[in-house]
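[Q] Does anyone have a clean structure-token version of this?
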Amino acid sequence: PSAGLGAPLISPPLAPVKAGPPPAATLLATDNRRSESYYETKGTVFSALIEAIDLAQLARLDADAAREEIRDIVNEIIAIKNIVMSISEQEELLDDICNDVLGYGPLEPLLARDDIADIMVNGSGTVYIEVAGKIHKTGIRFRDNQQLLNICQRIVSQVGRRVDESSPICDARLADGSRVNVIVPPLSIDGPALTIRKFTKEKLTLEQLTRFGSITPEGGEILKIIGRCRVNSIISGGTGSGKTTLLNCLTRYIDDDERIITCEDAAELQLQQPHVVRLETRPPNIEGEGQVTMRDLVKNCLRMRPERIIVGEVRGPEAFDLLQAMNTGHDGSMGTLHANSPREALSRMESMITMGGFSLPSRTIREMICASVDVIVQAARLRDGSRRITHITEVLGMEGDVIITQDLFLYEIIGEDASGNLTGRHRSTGIGRPRFWERARYYGEEKRLAAALDAAEIADESLPR
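[A] Here you go.
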């Protein structure tokens, strides 16, 4: 018997299938048309297709030619077996089978849509998507858990990883940089759970974030100066708050002649500069050996003559190595971490270093953080689904045993409009000369910085109190 319709006939998908995205309404409705009889028909056609097709020859064709070949054979099978279907049902069946053979099965229509931020599959019968910050249930389903598992294995095998009972958790990425997490039974009770954080094909810029209201034009200008002037920055925020997007935006202002090295668990940063080296961690193999941790990567970076080191996500003892790098001539290094406020981000960095087994006094760790981190940019996802940059905060130094910070920009929530969307405003705190002023002057950016700070104060004065 077949291992499910998603069985990896050809290990790599030849290319994303160019099926046009169906309208949102179609996907958000419960899919009543996909009855058991539809899956039985599809199973019959699929089995006949496996017997009729030469997989070795199919693997040599490009995506479009392979798709046409499959369509021709499926049409013949439908005619020979006298399967009664309307033209639209036949087209739907053809698309489904092509997606199963060449791509990622039922996920293909969702991957083709550019408005989806997350795809969450909870077992074979339940698929949720996030659109515009809100989560919706779709009518997409898989034939069974085996088909879903086969598609998960196909995804992770693209980046040389595996997921099975002996290694049930896996992080991977799609060809377009979308981040994938898979957890399978026995850890996931109701069948494989697959989560895809999709990347938009169009790279977001600070100008677009300004248009969306995530930051004011003046705040955006200050972020550009922070990116350009090699200010050591940490981007802090909760899950799904837009940290990686914001990090991608900041890196656009790095000069083209700088050597940048990125370290990530699953490579998802999309840097535009010509001189970039991308490094990725590696999980242990089946014998439990060969693991390469984030700490190993950051330590190795220091021997690669980097000018900037960018860590996709700081979540453990690599925080110590990143701080060391920031403090030893690799100015302008950046990283993201999970925290709900700038103050909490500093505490989390301290606890990460402590948990890494470094027996350093608390004051020493704090002094190291102060000497290394210049700016914390806080991102947040609000309850209406909108994403805002809520703080641009400078780290000033120590007073006693406490780290002193000052906010340059803050976001204040004012209320809620008739549609349930939160209303708020960004305001400048009136700081006229931030701590990185001298660095901005060194890079010839002090006039732009002064103009942005002045404009922010004028804009703030015009706001209703």
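[Q] Thanks! Anything notable?
[A] The CA atoms of residues 366 and 402 lie 8 Å apart.
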